[in-house]
Design goal:
Structural class: alpha/beta
Number of helices: 6
CATH topology: Rossmann fold
Number of strands: 5
Helix content: 25-40%
Distance between the termini: 5 Å
Strand order of the largest sheet: 3-2-4-1-5
Order of helices and strands: EHHEHEHHEHE
CATH class: Alpha Beta
Strand content: 5-15%
CATH architecture: 3-Layer(aba) Sandwich
Shape: globular
Largest sheet: 5 strands, mixed
Oligomer: single chain
CATH superfamily: Phosphoglycerate mutase-like
Length: 174
């Protein structure tokens, strides 16, 4: 099975470099980014299309699939819940520690990184039980970090720089 993992297009909080748990839509630039990606994957037939339930991910998915209304959403690939950090600038905390799998620091009421990864790993393990050839998944930077951990290992535990950029695609084999 090939998994085509896509991070959603740009949103306002990406521009502002802020943590984000609000359900915001793509910017005009974000829509252009997704339309450019669509050209690169247009000839791939996907057996299933799965998206995070957040608007930025489902809108990305709709553009990539010509607004197909058969998109499945799964809460397990929702972005890491940042709690009371939402709307705060990235510089407010140590981002290296926030995305360090081995960190013992808890930032406010944000979701623990190990619990977050476990949620995404459960999603991937569930995919393993299916008989799909090509799967398109649209999610978030944090989810792409968890995919990296699953397929490439946790290694030193540092995930800040292991996430996808807006509308970036990574292919995994299961």
């Amino acid at each position: 099975m090939k998994i085509y993992l896509v991070r959603h297009g740009q949103v306002k909080n990406n521009i502002l470099n802020q943590y984000n748990s609000i359900d915001e839509d793509l910017t005009e630039e974000g829509i252009k980014q997704v339309e450019n990606l669509k050209k690169k994957i247009k000839n791939i037939n996907f057996d299933i299309v799965i998206s995070s339930p957040l608007l930025r991910a489902t809108h990305t998915e709709y553009i990539l699939t010509n607004y197909d209304d058969k998109i499945i959403t799964d809460d397990r690939i929702r972005e890491r819940r940042c709690g009371n950090l939402s709307g705060q600038p990235f510089e407010m905390i140590n981002r290296e520690e926030y995305w360090n799998y081995y960190s013992k620091i808890q930032y406010g009421i944000s979701e623990n990184i190990q619990d977050f990864f476990k949620r995404v790993f459960d999603f991937i393990d569930d995919l393993k039980t299916k008989n799909y050839k090509n799967v398109l998944i649209t999610a978030h930077s944090g989810v792409s970090k968890a995919f990296s951990a699953y397929f490439e290992g946790i290694k030193d535990g540092k995930f800040l720089k292991r996430g996808l950029k807006n509308s970036e695609l990574k292919i995994y084999e299961l």
